[in-house]
Write a structure and sequence with these properties.
It contains 20 helices and 30 strands. The chain is of the alpha/beta class and 631 residues long. Strands 12-11-8-6-7-14-15-23 form an eight-stranded mixed β-sheet, sandwiched between helices. Strands 5-4-17-16-18-19-20 form a seven-stranded mixed β-sheet, sandwiched between helices. It has a four-stranded antiparallel β-sheet with strand order 21-22-24-25. Strand 19, helix 15 and strand 20 form a beta-alpha-beta unit. Helix 5 crosses helix 6 and helix 10 packs across helix 11. The mean pLDDT is 96. It binds 5'-O-(acetylsulfamoyl)adenosine. 5'-O-(acetylsulfamoyl)adenosine (7RM) binds next to helix 11, strand 19, strand 20, strand 24 and strand 25. The site of 5'-O-(acetylsulfamoyl)adenosine has 25 residues, from helix 11, strand 19, strand 20, strand 24 and strand 25.
């Protein structure tokens, strides 16, 4: 059976079959791939036991499925289209044959540096083709890639390198982003100097900007020096289905970021299946996802999903508003982009720049528009639909998470009826349930509750690197036998799903996940800070902004706010920078010492009445003081 569904009847049939006979359904889907050895069992293990397996007993290499498999038919088709930051610099194109060769060469470089199956490789790069190539080169060798977004600080990078003990780091001299240059090698050097960051043996440095960087003898190697010497042939390592493919760090409501672990076969099938069905890319189409490969969206929907389907995928190095707010649409016209996938925060930012940046472009190539990363508001949905899509392009509002590997709830382009702000229907194999506050499944169709998934799907995370207990605790314990998403959700009378946002202490800032505890810990590092509480508040462009309430030891100069921001930059990176910092005398606490975040969230959102039950407050006068000083 073909991967692709082409009408609503087929969707209904596929959904029903994946529910009633998942083993048979996924066995049929899996025949679309190249296996070295077939599986013994399609799905085994349970959520209760936290030992989910898909296609156990099979052997494969995901890069053979992304690259080698297409060479017969598509060797001269463009696989990767790279659009540089500077519009005057030429586009770079890799055909499937060229990408295959580049991945093999790069895998051979990594071999030279001692990388073997199961080793972790950290990729801390800007959005250049070599970033995607590095990801695939790791997969070719069976090395586990851990991509760290280029906006994270040296400390954040060091923490991620240390947690999974990466052996090799791949970086750029520096990266272009709009009118900025990000000194990636310098940041890497700083990270590697830290005492907790000892596992790295070699650093492979790709030259992008031409910045002067220091190269440490014996440790640092220029990409171009080694690349020239490596062969374009590299046999793919034979991997077992449940061998780890990658780790990707993401924030939770407590503690350090978690290394989300994905394995080979299930992730591959899920990435390919969801890409094919949600986007409905046809022969000759050009697909572009604007995410960074440092996030899960870039893993599944720039790299693996499109290439597994033999599509043409686009990578853009820059930002939406440089040189001006028409950049995205210039690129759409230049490359006749048919499928465009971006985040609500970008849509809102561009919406605020005026329609003229869009209406003076053609955009006639566009067929499908996608949204991901956070709930899309009504106004942005309609602007996207009307001004960008000219009411001719279905919008796929795709709900999913780092943990889910790929899209779980979304319209299928041109098939599912779209509704503004609704992710609509679950993909075949996805069984969403809404839970009430008693922890029971809500049976009525029209309902709202906490979103859980009732049974394993192939792309489901298999664990948290080095911490299986936390894996069970975070996702599998709140509702026994179910995967808990951390999101709130509404279901309408026709069983369409609308995701309303996190129900835990995870913030979503411009589609980036940030834990309140992480930001609080960072702020606490400032020597004059006694205590801090961080909450989200509604922000027109970012979706949510960061509001920090800070208790300082003594009367501080106003400069403390700038210092706090600098501290957060250093600990996490600019993406976690508080938008508002209010210095307060105390935080509203219960008698048992818990901060009442509910009140702080309300104040930050300028909702000053109805704080709910405040009878457990230790000192109610604190609330008035905070209210009076609100920003
Ligand atoms: C893909 C990604 C996951 C969190 C998730 C939600 C929110 C993502 C949507 C959405 C409403 C959407 N992975 N989220 N997509 N909320 N509608 N279409 O973003 O791990 O970084 O974030 O993002 O809260 O739990 S992520």
């Amino acid at each position: 059976m073909d991967l692709k569904i082409s009408n609503m009847d087929e969707y209904n049939n596929a959904y029903a079959m994946a529910q009633s006979n998942p083993q048979e359904f996924w066995a049929q889907m899996a025949t679309n791939f190249q296996w070295t050895k077939k599986w013994d069992e399609v799905q085994s293990g349970t959520i209760e036991q936290a030992d989910i397996k898909w296609f156990d007993g099979a052997q494969l290499n995901i890069t053979e499925n992304c690259l080698d498999r297409h060479l017969e038919k598509r060797s001269d088709q463009v696989a990767l289209l790279f659009e540089p930051n500077d519009p005057s610099e030429e586009t770079v194109k890799y055909t499937y044959a060229q990408l295959h060769a580049a991945v093999c060469k790069t895998a051979n470089m990594l071999k030279e540096l001692g990388v073997k199956k199961g080793d972790r490789v950290c990729i801390y790069m800007s959005m250049v083709p070599e970033q995607l190539i590095s990801v695939l080169a790791c997969a070719r060798l069976g090395a586990i890639h851990s991509v760290v977004f280029g906006g994270f600080s040296a400390l954040a990078l060091a923490g991620r390198i240390e947690d999974c003990e990466c052996k090799v780091l791949i970086t750029n001299d520096a990266g272009f982003r709009g009118n900025k240059i990000i000194p990636l090698k310098e940041i890497s050097d700083e990270a590697l100097k830290m005492k907790e960051c000892r596992s790295i043996e070699k650093v492979l440095v790709h030259k992008r900007v031409g910045s002067s960087v220091s190269m440490q003898e014996g440790r640092d190697i220029w990409w171009h020096d080694l690349y020239a010497k490596c062969s374009t042939e590299c046999e793919a390592e034979v991997m077992s289905s449940e061998d780890p493919l990658f780790i990707l760090y993401t924030s939770g409501s407590t503690g350090k970021p978690k290394g989300i672990l994905h394995t080979t076969a299930g992730y591959m099938v899920w990435a390919a299946y969801t890409f094919a069905n949600v986007f409905q890319v046809d022969e000759g189409d050009t697909y572009w996802c604007t995410a960074d490969i440092g996030w899960i969206t870039g893993h599944t929907y720039i790299t693996y999903g499109p290439l597994l389907n033999g599509a043409t995928t686009t990578m853009f190095e820059g930002v939406p508003t440089w040189p001006d707010a028409g950049r995205f649409w210039d690129i759409v016209d230049k490359h006749k982009i048919t499928h465009f996938y971006t985040a609500p925060t970008a849509i809102r930012a561009l919406m605020g720049c005026g329609n003229e940046f869009v209406t003076n472009k053609s955009l006639t190539s566009l067929k499908v528009l996608g949204s991901v990363g956070e709930p899309i508001n009504e106004e942005a949905w309609h602007w996207y639909d009307e001004v960008v899509g000219k009411k001719k392009c279905p919008i796929v509002d795709t709900w999913w998470q780092t943990e889910t590997g790929g899209i779980l709830i979304s319209p299928l382009a041109g098939i599912t009826k779209t509704i503004p702000c609704f992710a609509t229907k679950p993909l075949p194999g996805v069984s969403p349930v809404l839970m009430n506050s008693e922890g029971e499944v809500i049976e009525t169709t029209e309902a709202s509750g906490n979103l859980c998934i009732d049974r394993p799907w192939p792309g489901m995370l298999r664990g948290i690197w080095g911490d299986m207990e936390r894996f069970k605790q975070t996702y599998l314990s709140a509702y026994p036998g179910k995967y808990f998403t951390g999101d709130g959700c509404k279901r309408d009378q026709f069983s369409n799903y609308r995701i309303t946002g996190r129900v835990d202490d995870v913030l979503n800032i411009s589609g980036h996940r940030i834990g309140t505890a992480e930001v609080e810990d960072a702020i606490d590092q400032h020597p004059d800070v006694i205590e801090a509480a961080v909450v989200g508040f509604p922000h027109d462009v970012k979706g949510q902004g960061i509001y920090a309430y800070v208790v300082t030891g003594h009367d501080c100069e106003d400069s403390i706010k700038a210092e706090i921001i600098a501290t957060v930059n250093k600990m996490i990176g600019p993406i976690a920078k508080p938008d508002k910092i209010q210095i307060v005398k105390g935080l509203p606490k219960t008698r048992s010492g818990k901060i009442m975040r509910r009140i702080l969230r309300k104040i930050a959102s300028h909702e000053f009445d109805n704080f709910g039950d405040t009878s457990t407050l230790l000192d109610p006068s604190v609330v008035d003081e905070i209210k009076d000083g609100v920003l």
